[in-house]
Specification:
Layout: H1 3-9, H2 24-45, E1 51-52, H3 65-72, H4 85-104, E2 108-111, E3 122-125, H5 127-145, H6 150-157, H7 159-180, H8 208-214, E4 221-224, E5 228-231, H9 232-238, H10 240-260, H11 265-283, H12 292-295, H13 301-314, H14 317-324, H15 330-360, E6 372-374, E7 380-382, H16 386-389, H17 393-406, E8 414-418, H18 422-429, E9 434-436, E10 441-444, H19 453-456, H20 458-482, H21 484-492
Antiparallel strand pairs: 1-8, 2-3, 4-5, 6-7, 8-10, 9-10
Amino acid sequence: MTSNTKAEAATPAKAQPHGYEFGGPLGAFGVSFGLPLLLYIFTFACNDISGCPAPSLLSPSTLNLETLKREVGWPVDGIWGLGSWRVTGWTLAYYLLSAVLYRVLPGTKTLGVELDHGGRLEYKLNTVYSTIFTVSLVIAGTLAQGAEFPLWTFMTDNYLQLLTANILISIALATFVYVRSFSVKEDPATRASGDMRELAAGGHTGNVMYDWFIGRELNPRVTLPLLGEFDIKSFMELRPGMLGWMLYNYAHIAKQYRTFGFVTDSIVFISVVQTLYIIDSQIMEPAILTTIDITTDGFGMMLSFGDLVWVPFLYSAQTRYLAAHPVSLGWLGVIGMGAVLVTGFSIFRLANSQKNTFRTNPNDPSVAHLKSITTKTGSRLLVSGWWGLARHINYLGDWIQAWPYSLPTGLAGYVVIAADSVAATAAVAAGEQVFARADGQLVLGGAARGFGMIFTYFYVLYFAILLIHRDLRDGEKCARKYGEDWVKYTKLVRWHILPGVY
């Protein structure tokens, strides 16, 4: 190893040169505008008007644009119907409520990791209190008005417009922080005392598209009238999007009840376990201050869109599906799903707890026996225990937890037909399970059975790709930070996520 490489190994990771990620400017463009388009496709193609997928999509040779538009519920006023000033106004009010709760509710204050320029930013952490307060209000409203509680009907009746509103907000926010990042003073001689603003190491390449996407400023903060200072990145990480995910699950439960007159165990199971996942992440809120999102990535379209749009709308796709096509698991099914979930959560939590304990107190009896290597930076890397099995064994647990979100949808896919149609008579005669809706329409698997898995199991595929990509990014960061020590570590811990496979 050359002397230059050794010198780089001792330099903090964020100070090292960063190349393009996500395929550079072209990839940044594709993610920024391709993923919103994908969510629109999912919204239209899997619907409660004609089916999931829409029937015409199953017969591409006879595809007719006008018929398809009718089947997917394309707005009568065209592209302008994708949005609504009224819905956008209420969406902004939701964000304002989240900001007010952040300011007025009690919380603990803690310091983040040390910045390149020195010093640590202070964070107020009270997301779980904000969530409990909000959920308590909607529970009270539901107890008083049932499935017709206006919030639930508003969310499901305006799903498309809410999607558009949040996409526009994410774009506006990413643009705001990008433009504002040019006021960051990188020269120590021009920085005011106490100024801890800095650029993200990989976010100021000079390419507008890429920097706007990846995030130019590391920790953008803004001061709002009457509400004070907000750290935009940490605020968006666990608040509006995560709560929106939870609320959409509940809205879909209410819609299933309004549509069919009952609620299935599958939609309740998914909503409960995802609620526990969200609450757990918010209880563990201090842990986000050491994640790559906070310590390394700038705040741009990548995180803005991911936090505000991708999480609430994609992650609730399974309950949206079940609201339109009920699936019953039975007790054995629920127990089976629970067993998979507990397995994944146990791996995830035990691995993370072991690492956190080792970092805070390596002499603790529960971790004192573990083997590690000491790097030139002074850090110690575990090479036994959970972390001797794979470099990101916690990701394996996280991915296993994703399966019970999709499995309850079964062999997904359904069609919506009129009760007095020939197809309905044939389905009943064939003994196919048919669900009667409150509007007189019937829902059954039919020819769509299995094709709906494109939508309900996409989350599992996406999450695997996300975790593999995070593993690769973290590996690159550690290679820059630890140099030859990282090479030594990877020889001892060969596997990335899944021992013996990857």
